[in-house]
């Protein structure tokens, strides 16, 4: 549900001409998904107002308590547990993926490989407005981050921790997944040509004192422009593992 909440808030802000410069929509979606059903409306509004954001400083015409009360009412109408409008978390759900994952020892490699297979099997269309015309939906990296968070949370359940936009130095780690006390840093990038994101991830690895990170590449390249990507990159901070997810495969009739 977190992915749907985030997109709803982003669209709501966009319709009102409000620029979201520091991932306010992501923070609201994380907060709503993890704690809305546990607290009263007044308590939840108090938590909303404690979120650090520049949104209201940059949009001085907004009265924060009034704006967030109205936003929460909209979210409750759409997403409160039991509402029929609440949408599926991941295309096709993740129940089968969760059973397979929990049947063997948990590793971040297994989880990310399961995510790759699930996206390539069921979620390719989530990224495209028109694959035939090579038109991606807006903010494809955000879509990928949200899908990964939703998938990981559904698969690991209460036996792991999944966080998005984790503050690290002056930046934000896209996704952090932890089994026990071991955090795994994951940077998500759209691959259109040259591999990017490695130096950004290396900075986070240094800041978080991690010797390994994961670079998840959403490969949008057409079949005739695909080339191999390395499965790992060595940087001063340690080792970056690279995993490419193909969302622009050849049609079966053309293989």
Strand segment tally: 8
Give the CATH topology of the largest domain: Restriction Endonuclease
Estimate the mean pLDDT confidence: 87
Domains, number: 2
Q: Outline the low-pLDDT stretches.
A: 83-88
Termini separation comes to 36 Å
DSSP strand content: 15-25%
DSSP helix fraction: 40-55%
Number of H- or I-type helical stretches: 9
Radius of gyration: 19 Å
Mass-distribution shape:
globular
Question: Mind telling me the CATH class of the largest domain?
Answer: Alpha Beta
For the largest beta sheet, what order do the strands appear in spatially? 3-4-5-6-8-7
Structural class label: alpha/beta
Order of helices and strands: HHHHHHHEEHEEEHEEE
Examine the secondary-structure arrangement and name the CATH architecture of the largest domain. 3-Layer(aba) Sandwich
**Main sheet properties:** 6 strands, mixed
Molecular structure report:
With 255 residues, this protein is of the alpha/beta class. The protein folds into 2 domains: 2-79; 95-254, Restriction Endonuclease. It has 9 helices and 8 strands. Strands 3-4-5-6-8-7 form a 6-stranded mixed beta sheet, with helices on both faces. Strand 7 and strand 8 form a beta hairpin. The radius of gyration is 19 Å and the shape is globular. The two termini are 36 Å apart. Residues 83-88 have low confidence and may be disordered.
In short:
A hairpin with a 2-residue loop joins strand 4 and strand 5. The protein has helices spanning 2-15, 24-35, 41-49, 55-58, 64-79, 95-102, 108-123, 140-156, 198-207; strands at 128-130, 135-136, 161-168, 171-179, 182-191, 212-219, 232-235, 238-246.
């Amino acid at each position: 549900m977190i992915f749907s909440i985030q997109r709803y808030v982003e669209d709501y802000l966009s319709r009102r001409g409000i620029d979201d410069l520091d991932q306010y929509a992501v923070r609201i979606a994380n907060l709503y998904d993890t704690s809305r059903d546990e607290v009263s409306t007044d308590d939840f509004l108090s938590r909303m107002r404690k979120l650090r954001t520049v949104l209201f400083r940059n949009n001085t015409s907004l009265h924060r308590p009034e704006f967030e009360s109205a936003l929460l009412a909209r979210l409750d109408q759409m997403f409160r547990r039991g509402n029929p409008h609440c949408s599926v978390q991941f295309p096709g759900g993740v129940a089968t993926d969760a059973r397979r994952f929990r049947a063997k020892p948990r590793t971040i490699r297994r989880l990310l490989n399961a995510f790759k297979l699930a996206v390539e099997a069921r979620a390719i269309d989530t990224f495209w407005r028109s694959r035939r015309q090579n038109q991606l939906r807006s903010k494809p990296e955000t879509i990928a981050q949200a899908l990964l968070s939703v998938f990981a949370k559904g698969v690991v359940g209460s036996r792991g921790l999944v966080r998005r936009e984790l503050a690290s130095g002056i930046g934000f780690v896209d996704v952090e997944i932890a089994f026990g006390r071991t955090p795994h840093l994951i940077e998500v990038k759209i691959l259109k040509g040259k591999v990017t994101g490695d130096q950004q991830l290396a900075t986070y690895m240094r800041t978080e004192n991690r010797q390994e990170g994961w670079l998840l590449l959403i490969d949008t390249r057409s079949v005739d422009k695909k080339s191999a990507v390395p499965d790992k990159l060595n940087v001063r901070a340690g080792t970056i593992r690279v995993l490419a997810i193909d969302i622009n495969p050849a049609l079966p009739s053309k293989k």
